[in-house]
């Protein structure tokens, strides 16, 4: 029977869970639209190269977490299939949006403000709040080099979290990764510091030391974390331009009354980030504390082969947010049409269909005796039942039973929708 279970790390969104999920995404979509972000979608798979180039060969995602297929190899047994043939399920959507920006020739239309929502795929160890197929929504603001863009993007995220009722559940953590020059100087300082403690580093981090020392700051290994605590801080290596940029972002957030906590250890796991890095975190989900994360990625589009174009954005985890939010509004309560006796069948079908066209949620009670059908109406949390028997048919009417009060009245079919719309 194991084949009837969903694959490890994936889950069904059954109707209750789906309603919760939808409520989160609908809220995000509506608020992002107020900021001028327009929804778009990219395919859920791309050429592997799209992710490799942008996430970097040494990132956790690329080295361990990608679902990659080589259709060329599978088709003709050609194991030497070029990387270009290989495709990967998207582990995140920034690379896809950037790829679409380039291939869609949107460079003439900057700034581009995009909102997306959909499933992402990462082969990681499943646990609560960490799945292999999970969902993100996010925004990308492409083409604006000024810190105003960072402020707007963060403000949008903060407003979404507030609209979800999470203002007291999350903290905005903020850092800067500086410009490429500052990063290079800082990188040297880190290499020198960690080289002195090479023997105490985890194996992964020893590897990072040569390939991407900044990543050590992001390590989840206990021993690494102790070393990281005393590592040099980026602050001291920021050049004046990077300092000014960060100051402008902070001043903007201060001006809008958006609270944040400076976290000099916050680095993004992805290679293309610079300047602003941020995460909205919560202490209510155990180890899975990040609910929304993002930053500035001025180098990304150039790295992919497009024109030099700055960008800033974030992505949020829908499952984690859904766990934190209150029960969404219940589904609208249906009106149940109950034919009593054979003759009423056709009329009942017509009445039900008429209600649906008029905008009501309507269900037809199909079978069983009257009592059974009313019990089912109750189970569906129906607001009212419309009984159609011989007498009602003769009078071109229906008996409306208010299922909350139990009251009944005869209503002409002609005035039915008008009468139903007066039900609270
Ligand atoms: P983490 O540190 O938790 O692994 P991350 O840095 O890998 O997160 P991002 O790539 O920044 O996460 O993705 C943005 C958001 O997507 C995260 O803040 C989180 O809410 C959500 N997310 C990431 N990976 C998963 C996953 N495997 N399952 C569920 N949600 C996830
Ligand atoms: Mg991760």
Characteristic key phrases:
eight-stranded mixed β-sheet, about 425 residues, binds magnesium ion, Rossmann fold, BirA Bifunctional Protein, domain 2, alpha+beta, 16 helices, binds adenosine-5'-triphosphate
Q: Explain this structure to me?
A:
With 424 residues, this protein is α+β, with helices and mostly antiparallel strands. It has two domains: 15-179 and 239-324, Bira Bifunctional Protein, Domain 2 (BirA Bifunctional Protein, domain 2), CATH 3.30.930.10; 335-420, Rossmann fold (3-Layer(aba) Sandwich), CATH 3.40.50.800. Helix content is 38%, strand content 20%. It has helices at 15-34, 48-55, 60-65, 71-76, 94-103, 147-163, 180-196, 203-211, 222-229, 240-256, 300-303, 318-324, 345-357, 370-379, 390-394, 416-420; strands at 38-39, 45-47, 68-69, 87-89, 112-121, 133-142, 170-176, 261-262, 274-282, 290-296, 311-317, 335-339, 362-364, 384-388, 397-402, 408-412. The strands form three sheets. The protein has an eight-stranded mixed sheet, sandwiched between helices. Helix 1 (15-34) packs antiparallel against helix 6. The radius of gyration is 28 Å and the shape is elongated. The two termini are 47 Å apart. The relative contact order is 0.12. The chain binds adenosine-5'-triphosphate and magnesium ion (MG). Residues 92, 122, 124, 129-131, 134, 136, 269, 288, 290-293, 315-317, 319-320 line the site of adenosine-5'-triphosphate.
